[in-house]
Amino acid sequence: MTVTTSEPRRVLVLNGPNLNLLGTREPGIYGTATLADVEALCRDRAAAHGLAADFLQSNHEGVLVDAIQAARDTASGIVLNAGAYTHTSVAIADAISAVGLPVVEVHLSNVHAREEFRHHSFISPVATAIIIGAGLNGYGYAIDQLAGLP
To answer: In the chain, what are the domains?
Structure first.
């Protein structure tokens, strides 16, 4: 008899610049939850779907691009809060297109109710889904979305 164990499907949760400051950075906009709270919520939600979650936060665009490219071999989908890079990074959008993984774009605040420059996203056209303004819960919804994909 052969017993095989399979690893759970993995999702990568990526957070961009300044998200390491969650909990203290403009709590009126971003809330009081910390990045550790985001990770705990994501781990719990992923586990409820039989998934595993990996995490990375970086203030550096190239690190995020490298992580997206590496996810091609390790993840079945990506939850991405690219922070300000959402509005500026063609490189991140190109990396998403190149790897062909489903990506759910997440924003804690309603970016469309904020400054005009936040209304444009380079990520949205290459994202599978977009969750905006749901606060911390948006990350959980993103994992729910990825879990429902084949």
So the answer is: 10-147 (3.40.50.9100)
DSSP string, 35-84: HHHHHHHHHHHHHHTT-EEEEEE-S-HHHHHHHHHHHTTT-SEEEEE-GG
Residue 1 reports pLDDT greater than 80 = no
The answer to whether 90 and 23 have CB atoms below 8 angstroms apart is: no
| Active-site annotation holder among 60, 85, 87, 107 | 107
Q: Which residues, at least 6 apart from 25, have a Cβ–Cβ distance to it below 8 Å?
A: 18
Q: What gap in Å lies between CA 45 and CA 97, rounded to an integer? A: 26
The burial of 77, by beta-carbon neighbours within 10 Å (0-12 exposed, 13-18 middle, 19 or more buried), is given as: buried
For the ranges 14-18, 42-46, 71-75, 111-115, the lowest mean pLDDT is seen at: 111-115
pTM (whole model) above 0.70: yes
Dist CA 111 CA 132 (whole Å): 7
- The angle formed by the CA atoms of residues 38, 42 and 44, to the nearest 5 degrees, is 120
Told to judge if 107 belongs to the known catalytic residues of this protein, a careful annotator would answer yes
Tokens found for residue 33:
């939850």
